[in-house]
């Protein structure tokens, strides 16, 4: 049974209804000492993001925060439809770029934005504050007795040679509903033939499809999956610190890694620009820290300057829109469906 966690009505206007529906995954309000309120729409889990909210409120206790978590596709659709948010944070940097390109972001300039490297901002509209690799998390029990693969070619060989062990136990994104999954898949496909070969092998093993990294990692920890492919490295590192993570590990694939830039923008409809800018400054200063520190989301330079990664970071710029073109997206999804949804 396919494991699709959320049904999303619209992404980029490609479904029949044409209407977005914001499906809230988490929401928390942090009161302030005045009537000022900052509304944040984000893909970042509350557990991962709360420390920065609390840090901001130590500097600006007057500003209340309404923090809403949704999938990247829902975040995109909500802002396209003009829903009432001030700051938009997403792991799907291509969709963020699309919003800015469509005139749905307000420009912002400060000392913090000016301190960003040029590859981490675009036209004072979109700002990166983390660089996060896609990683593969495995169940050590499911790989017992097997030599751990170090490249995707070796992973393909292990899956082909042990179908009974991995059938129904491989998790990856459903690119039709996951904005981040679509970004990772398209960037990988354009740079390596291994993506399609691996997709075809997975497709013969009844893969389980997800919207989000967190649920995939949970299912590895609970024994339902042997592999979670292309999950966010920051989430994986956080989960591996928990006591129940003893049976999990990150599979070190040495051939390449996609590195995503998590980005923020100020919505064009915002009536709290000053508060949004103040929060953005705190966020960017945290992104420019020299070492990883205590925050689970890594700084910009933790991956971007790593010469060992032959991919990434994925660059902010018009090239991100290539696969957002409706015809290109349709062709890619059809090829992906052919690979991943094979009849057994």
**Tally of separate helices:** 13
Morphology call: globular
CATH topology descriptor of the largest domain: D-Maltodextrin-Binding Protein, domain 2
Tell me the name of the CATH class of the largest domain: Alpha Beta
| SSE succession | EEHEHEHEHEEHHEHHEHEHEEHHH
The CATH architecture of the largest domain comes to 3-Layer(aba) Sandwich
How many structural units, i.e. domains? Answer: 2
Largest sheet: 12 strands, mixed
Kindly state the percentage of residues in helix: 25-40%
Could you walk me through the main structural features you see in this protein, from its secondary elements to its overall organization?
There is one protein chain. The protein is α/β, with parallel strands linked by helices and 344 residues long. It has two domains: 26-131 and 260-315, D-Maltodextrin-Binding Protein, domain 2 (3-Layer(aba) Sandwich); 134-258 and 328-340, D-Maltodextrin-Binding Protein, domain 2 (3-Layer(aba) Sandwich). Helices cover 36% and strands 19% of the residues. The protein is built from 13 helices and twelve strands. The chain has helices at 46-59, 72-80, 93-101, 111-114, 152-161, 163-166, 179-191, 194-203, 213-221, 233-240, 273-287, 301-304, 326-340, and strands at 26-30, 37-42, 64-69, 87-90, 105-106, 121-122, 126-139, 170-173, 208-210, 227-232, 248-251, 259-267. Strands 1, 2, 3, 4, 5, 6, 7, 8, 9, 10, 11 and 12 form a twelve-stranded mixed β-sheet that branches. Strand 2 (37-42), helix 1 (46-59) and strand 3 form a beta-alpha-beta unit. Helix 1 (46-59) crosses helix 11, helix 5 packs parallel to helix 8 (194-203) and helix 8 (194-203) crosses helix 13. It is globular. The two termini are 13 Å apart.
């Amino acid at each position: 049974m396919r494991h699709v966690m959320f049904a999303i009505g619209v992404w980029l206007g490609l479904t029949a209804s044409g209407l977005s529906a914001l499906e809230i995954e988490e929401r928390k309000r942090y009161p302030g000492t005045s009537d000022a309120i900052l509304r944040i729409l984000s893909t970042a889990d509350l557990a991962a993001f709360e420390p920065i909210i609390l840090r901001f409120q130590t500097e600006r206790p007057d500003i209340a925060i309404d923090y809403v978590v949704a999938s990247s596709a829902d975040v995109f659709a909500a802002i396209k439809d003009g829903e009432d948010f001030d700051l938009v944070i997403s792991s799907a940097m291509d969709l963020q770029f699309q919003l800015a390109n469509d005139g749905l972001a307000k420009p912002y300039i400060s000392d913090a934005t000016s301190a960003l490297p040029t590859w981490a901002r675009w036209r004072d509209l979109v700002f990166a504050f983390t660089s996060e690799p896609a990683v593969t998390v495995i169940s050590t029990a499911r790989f017992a007795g097997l030599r751990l693969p170090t490249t995707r070619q070796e992973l393909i060989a292990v899956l082909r040679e042990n179908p009974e062990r991995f059938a129904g136990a491989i998790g990856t994104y459903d690119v039709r509903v996951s904005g981040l999954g679509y970004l990772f898949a398209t960037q990988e496909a354009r740079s390596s033939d291994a993506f399609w070969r691996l997709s075809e092998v997975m497709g013969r093993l009844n893969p389980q499809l997800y919207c989000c990294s967190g649920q995939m990692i949970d299912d590895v920890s609970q024994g339902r999956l042997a592999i979670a492919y292309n999950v966010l490295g920051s989430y994986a590192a956080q989960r591996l610190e928990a006591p129940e993570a003893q049976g999990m590990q990150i599979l070190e694939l040495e051939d390449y890694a996609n590195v995503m830039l998590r980005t923020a923008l100020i919505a064009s409809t915002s009536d709290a620009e000053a508060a949004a800018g103040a929060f953005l400054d705190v966020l960017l200063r945290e992104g420019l820290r020299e070492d990883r520190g205590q925050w689970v989301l890594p700084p910009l330079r933790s991956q971007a300057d790593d010469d060992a990664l032959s991919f990434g970071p994925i660059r902010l710029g018009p090239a991100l829109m290539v696969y957002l073109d409706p015809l290109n997206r349709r062709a890619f999804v059809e090829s992906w469906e052919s690979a991943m949804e094979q009849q057994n």
